[in-house]
Specification:
This protein has a single domain (about 5-240), classed as Rossmann fold. Helices cover about 40% and strands about 20% of the residues. The protein contains 8 helices and 9 strands. The relative contact order is 0.17. Pfam families: ThiF.
């Protein structure tokens, strides 16, 4: 294949054979917040040829401290559409499917069955949809990497790529582990996670806020570190297999 000039530095690092694997891949990213937004952009910048991005949320002013789609001018706009514009500006040749919806229950399975995905990325921050998505991918043999909680954490050196069932000291990981075991998933789920302690006074409960029950303090770089690490798992696996 002829590698486009904008990918020349990636080509210098990886070579044409690995580039071709990325160009021919289709990656699904669900959740485009602090972790998912930067993750999707890094996957696109690596040259992945087809992407499906999913999120129904709109940009809120409070997103600007950490989320790639969030600027003053993008407030109130759909995150998926804002990010899609960025991705197409990075790679005008990309085949990009944009879904401005929340994936829940059977709809999750419909999307997984309709697409031919080489990799799936879980950046969902609501427990039940997260579990359905993970279980759906596992049942269909779709390679998946899942992000655990980046909120409340400040030390990027503690971020790790591990199996979910090796995690500890993370509330989201604990809930996901417990529920997935009940659903029959007991091993082999790659996650990005940090064992760093969270100060409990940095978390407060909110009802009726886009299905979220809690809000956790965040800093600009930590979701990005998680997102870049998740993207690295996808990219490295795609060009290595």
């Amino acid at each position: 294949m002829e590698v486009p000039y904008w990918m020349s530095r990636t080509n210098l690092l990886l070579g044409e054979e690995k580039i071709e694997k990325l160009v021919n891949a289709h990656v699904l990213v669900v959740g485009l917040g602090g972790v998912g937004g930067i993750c999707a952009e890094m996957i696109a910048r690596a040259g992945v040829g087809t992407m499906t991005i999913v999120d129904a949320d709109t940009v809120d002013p409070s997103n600007r401290n950490r989320q790639i789609p969030a600027t003053k001018s993008s407030e109130g706009k759909l995150k998926a559409e804002v990010l899609a514009e960025r991705i197409r500006d990075i790679n005008p040749e990309i085949k990009l499917n944009v879904m401005c919806e929340y994936l829940r229950d059977e709809r999750t399975f419909e999307v997984l069955d309709q697409g031919s995905f080489d990799y799936a990325v879980d950046c969902i921050d609501t427990l039940s949809p997260k579990l359905f998505f993970i279980k759906g991918c596992k049942d269909r043999g779709i390679p998946i990497v899942s992000s655990m909680g980046a909120g409340g954490k400040v030390d990027p050196t503690r971020v790790r790529v591990v199996d979910l069932f090796e995690t500890y000291n993370c509330t989201l990981s604990r809930h996901v582990r417990k529920r997935l075991r009940q659903m029959g998933v007991k091993e082999n789920l790659t996650v990005v996670w940090s064992p760093e302690d969270i100060e409990t006074d940095r978390v407060y409960t909110v009802e009726g806020m886009n299905n979220k029950k809690s809000v956790i303090g965040t800093i600009s770089y930590m979701p990005a570190v998680f997102g870049c690490t998740v993207a690295s798992v996808v990219i490295r696996d795609l060009y290595s297999n």
